[in-house]
Amino acid sequence: MSKPKSATALAPADLVDWTGVPLQRVEYELEAAIFAQGDPATSVMYVESGAVRLSVVSHAGKEAVIAVLDKGHFFGEGCLASQPRRMATATAMSPSTIISVERADMVRQLHSQPGFADRFLTHMLTRNIRIEEDLIDQLFNSSEKRLARTLLLLARYGEPEASHRTLPKVSQETLAEMVGTTRSRVNFFMNKFRKLGFIEYNGGLKINNSLLSVVLRD
Q1: Domains in the chain, CATH or no CATH each
Q2: What is the pLDDT of residue 3?
Q3: 3-state secondary structure (DSSP) of residue 4
Q4: CA–CA dist 207, 156 (Å, integer)
Q5: Measuring CA to CA, which residue among 28, 41, 4 is closest to residue 137?
Q6: pLDDT by residue (tens digit) across 110-129?
Q7: I need a surface site. Which of 153, 161, 192, 194 has the fewest CB within 10 A?
């Protein structure tokens, strides 16, 4: 199974105006399940803080990570298109605060608040563009380039508000699922990137801008 990457953050979380919206704000611990594949799809969710992993499991039992979302992202929006069940499992990758809005309340907010609706539309268009880019990446690029692109996306490369290009905690197994390769290949390329100075380990994983050269290389 293939692997759409982490989405690009749309705006700081405090720009979302939830005034007058009935919502539930829930704290999740590391690795806590937010919802599971097959659960009833009754609400739209928003990452107020932390990070969320979306994954799917095939009928054969194979799991694939399809997105890693950090602060400022909506997820679970399929319910707005009358999706009856969750198509993926959402798991907290770090202690996270998640806002949940019931479908009817979200529809009412989209209809009554043009600014909110514009931001949500931007989110949907950005998600569609990313899916197209991921498909092209999967079809035409090597696993080394796919890994480099995934790391840059997780570090929010190119965003002025991104802090120090440091990644949220993500295992090599998760990276392998996102890239569509094996953990051993991820480990090989990560060691290569480190030796070339593209990444650094110092209490966390820091991504340097020079990693972009791997993506741009013919």
Answers
A1: 13-131 (2.60.120.10), 142-216 (1.10.10.10)
A2: 42
A3: coil
A4: 10
A5: 4
A6: 999 898 899 899 888 988 88
A7: 161
